[in-house]
Amino acid sequence: MNWNLIYLDKVTSTNDVAKDLPHQTVVVAREQTKGRGRCSRSWVSEPDNLFCSIVLKNYGMKTPLLSFVLGVSVVESLKGFEAKLKWPNDVLVDGKKVAGILLENEEDKLIAGVGINTKKIPVGNFLYPVGCLNDMFSNEVLLNAFLNNLAHNLDVFEKEGFFKIRQKWMSYALGLGQNISVQLPHMKLEGLFEDMTTEGAILLKLNDMSYKYITAGDVFLLNEGK
């Protein structure tokens, strides 16, 4: 897959720029002034961390599964780190969030925003502890590795479906087989993170031995739950 890279200095959000560009374009910025995260949260964008958005085709009903394709691709790029994936796609190193992914649909395409704290730890009040990679990679080297892994994993996803991507994701999953808490909009659930379904939902086994499928929420290990 050939990527068309566009480098910019300062933008509101790389996703804002990417939405008007063709498939396989990658927008990279040194600084974002209005970075976005999941659930309408802001993404604190310390200058010189890695911020990029990739324009991908829309896969219809399967599009949400790209969240896992992207998360796996980031983890596979962090050689030398024992990175973990916190459902659905937060990347953690040493128990701290170092990367996040935001998917936004735009007509016939998908804009995948990726932020990686390569050099600086963001300052603010966050749901989960945050960290950075302490400049172990240059942004250019890490971006190149990520885009190569993403191209490979997209090819796997297109040709073989979600099965192998799901296997990879689960090998990196934080809390799989452990008790977790999931913060939903109006309640919190606790239970055993037993599996992830082929649709990307958490299969949560509750204390009363019933099961709950979680399709959206914030996950914490049980002793971290809020």
CATH topology of the largest domain: BirA Bifunctional Protein, domain 2
Main pleated-sheet profile:
7 strands, mixed
Strands, count: 12
The value of Rg in angstroms is 17 Å
Provide key terms for this protein.
SH3 type barrels; 2 domains; 226 residues; 34% strand; alpha+beta; five-stranded antiparallel β-sheet; single chain
Describe the structure.
It is a single chain. The chain has 226 residues and is α+β, with helices and mostly antiparallel strands. It has two domains: 168 residues, 2-Layer Sandwich (BirA Bifunctional Protein, domain 2); 46 residues, SH3 type barrels. 21% of the residues lie in helices and 34% in strands. The protein is built from four helices and twelve strands; from the N terminus they run E-H-E-E-H-E-E-E-E-H-H-E-E-E-E-E. Strands 1-2-3-7-6-5-4 form a seven-stranded mixed sheet. A hairpin with a 4-residue loop joins strand 10 and strand 11. The protein is globular and about 55 Å long. It starts with a strand and ends in a 5-residue tail after the last strand. The model has no long low-confidence stretch (mean pLDDT 92).
Quickly describe the structure.
This protein is of the alpha+beta class. It has 4 helices and 12 strands.
Outline the fold blueprint.
Elements: E1 4-11, H1 14-18, E2 25-32, E3 50-57, H2 66-77, E4 84-86, E5 90-93, E6 96-106, E7 109-116, H3 139-160, H4 163-171, E8 179-183, E9 188-196, E10 202-206, E11 211-214, E12 218-221
Parallel strand pairs: 1-2
Antiparallel strand pairs: 2-3, 3-7, 4-5, 5-6, 6-7, 8-9, 8-12, 9-10, 10-11
